[in-house]
Amino acid sequence: MTLFTFSLKSLAGRRRRFFFLGLAVSFGFFVMTVSTGLTEGLLKTVREKGAFYFSGNVNITCISRNTNDTTMDAQLLRDAVREALGPASVFLRSIYYGIDAQLFFGGATVRQRRVIGIDWSDEKSGEGALNIVSGAFPEGGDRRAVLISETAAKRLGVRVGDELMLLVTGPHGRNTANFVLRGIFKDSSIFGYAAYVSRTALNDTLSLPSDYATDFGVTLGGGRNNDAEAEKIRAALAKRARVFSVAHTRAELSDLSGGSWQGKRYMVCTLDAHLSDIKQVLDAITSICYALLAAFLAVVLIGIVSTYRVVVYQRSAEIGMMRAIGMSKARAMAVFIEEAGALTAVSAFVGLIAGEIVLFAISLLDFPPSLDMFLKRGHLAWAIDPGVMLGIFAIVCASTLLAAWIPARKAAGITPMDAMRAED
Amino acid sequence: MPLAFADPDFPAMLKTVDSLVSFLDTDFSAEYKIEQSKPGEGTSVTDAVMFRRDKDEKYLILILDPASDKGKGYLKIGLSMWLYDPVARKFDFTSSKERFQNSNARNSDFTKSSFATDYDIVSTAHEQLGKFPCWVFDLKANNDDVSFPRTKIWVSEDNLVRKVEDYSLSGQLMRTRAVPSYQKVGSRYVPVMMLIVDNLRGKSVGGKFQNETTRITITKPSLSALPDSLFTQAYLEKVNQ
């Protein structure tokens, strides 16, 4: 019989004594599973939406001073990204930031914070970030397509299949173009005040060259460090063109374009620079979670130390017997450590399963539109990062083993004679 | 089939419909009263004077009342259209598809009729509309410049439009217009009153949904010649000095 099996049997035999301790570990792990699952889910959703809205996990723009040349060299950028990251998903966008962008329908009008010209076929993968609730993501080459938010659609009284008029101001003055509404996405957050149209159609409306682009986006898969990848891209780009240092925050983003410089320069920016305000909120939520974890660990540690002190006292005779028949000190200590480990493992597993069940139940609930920024089709998405959960499990295990180690050491130090006396 | 019962020449009929309410050989001016009713918000009244020169696709509308909008002007020349704000003293680009003074009328409602040129006939039917036996034309726009891509018109035996239903591209009914009576001006016709029901916008009042409506009454129609200088931005600026 292995020591672990022995420990499990020992725990089962004393289940009443360990029940509340196990319950505390389970509850703690359950809370951590739910809180980290939700935080990870929120972060993932915001990042997905942000990456679509702000043109990629890493975004490159071109700015100029004392020259009118703001043309992006798409091939040069593709080469730089390929050198830095190998094959990567990249796309071009033409974004209109003018405050006068308006959509007209049926005599009603609604202003848009930005009009984003995209290549439908290049960004099909971003469809999930948009939460399309009516219609569909346009097919590649659909120059007449427009996607607008549910809020804008309601204010206009428009439905999929209707024709909208877009008003924008290009270098040669105001212009209008008609688009057909192909899809309505649900988002009343900051990501919602945008209309998506075909890049070439927007360029034509603005009287710009069809291949004109304002943004070059790089999509990075989950788990990749945006900051590190942005630095690699910047280094590769610096060999080919003049480029600012990477902007990691919104403040850096605005500072970079200041100073004394001339001509045309590229600016590499991470998604976090755009999401810094939101990220602060999410970092605060994460900090609260970890504070909860610390509090939970403290409670569990105290509980384990207290419980095992009682256990050692009550099992003195048993320990003495085991020591009398030849069990070494180390092995006697290991029995208690293994028991604590088994208790933690089983309880944590129960807490994990219970947490996932609750997360699944939460994901079925409808949430109000005020939380749209964090929602996928009106629901909270959750995500369990195995690395994070393993980390928490390791911390919990290490803490409980440490807590068990003190009374276990005391137990191992009991001589058979002392144990017999204690039984008397 | 006896000739007497044969269908009329519908494209020619549409041309007649347009010509009866368009002024291609004279100028046109009149006073317009626009009463806008929004459920639960009461009625607002706008008085305006309209100057039209259909042969050049021009019109100018000058707001006379309420005092807060007095001096505002809409100038349309061809496909371009501006709205003059006398307070800011500046012209803003606007579209003929936009609402006129936040009413249910569109800026395009004040220009000449162009069913025959802007729309293709999809189908026709004969229908009784109140006391008027009418031909109903289901029309589809052949260009993007019109306010509505689909429209349905009821034309009475005197070739005057009595009812219009405007549809969006998806087939959504957006507006219904009724023109119960016309007044004759020379050899042409001008509505005495026009009622517009916005089928999209309204509010529930007392548990019942009520649509926004606009009533336009046209008085003092005239075919007198108008000076060229009237259809200019300078005129709108000058009249507000």
Structure characteristics:
heterodimer; A: 424 residues; alpha+beta; 2 domains; 12-stranded mixed β-sheet; two-stranded antiparallel sheet; 14 helices; 14 strands; 52% helix; 19% strand; elongated; B: 241 residues; mainly beta; outer membrane lipoprotein receptor (LolB), chain A; 13-stranded antiparallel β-sheet; 13 strands; 9% helix
Question: What does the model show?
Answer:
- The complex is a heterodimer of chains A (424) and B (241).
- Chain A has 424 residues and is α+β, with helices and mostly antiparallel strands.
- Helix content of chain A is 52%, strand content 19%.
- Chain A has 2 domains: 3-48 and 277-423, no CATH class; 54-275, no CATH class.
- Chain A has helices at residues 3-13, 15-53, 74-85, 127-130, 150-156, 199-205, 226-238, 250-256, 271-274, 276-314, 316-324, 329-363, 386-412, 416-423; strands at 58-65, 89-96, 102-105, 108-111, 114-118, 132-135, 145-149, 163-170, 173-185, 194-198, 215-219, 263-270, 375-376, 379-380.
- In chain A, helix 3 (74-85) packs across helix 7 and helix 12 (329-363) runs antiparallel to helix 13 (386-412).
- Chain A is elongated.
- The two termini of chain A are 31 Å apart.
- The mean pLDDT of chain A is 83.
- With 241 residues, chain B is mainly beta.
- Chain B has one domain: Lipoprotein localisation LolA/LolB/LppX (outer membrane lipoprotein receptor (LolB), chain A, Clam).
- Chain B is 9% helix and 53% strand.
- Chain B has 3 helices and 13 strands; from the N terminus they run H-E-E-E-E-E-E-H-E-E-E-E-E-E-E-H.
- Chain B has helices at 10-20, 115-118, 233-239; strands at 28-38, 42-53, 58-65, 73-77, 80-85, 90-93, 119-129, 132-141, 150-156, 161-167, 173-185, 188-205, 208-222.
- Chain B has a 13-stranded antiparallel β-sheet, sandwiched between helices.
- In chain B, strand 3 and strand 4 form a beta hairpin.
- The radius of gyration of chain B is 18 Å and the shape is globular.
- The chains are: A alpha+beta (424), B mainly beta (241).
- Chain A binds chain B through residues 104-109, 157-163, 165, 167, 174, 176, 178, 180-181, and chain B through 93, 95, 97-99, 104, 106, 144, 149, 168-172, 174-175, 198, 200-201.
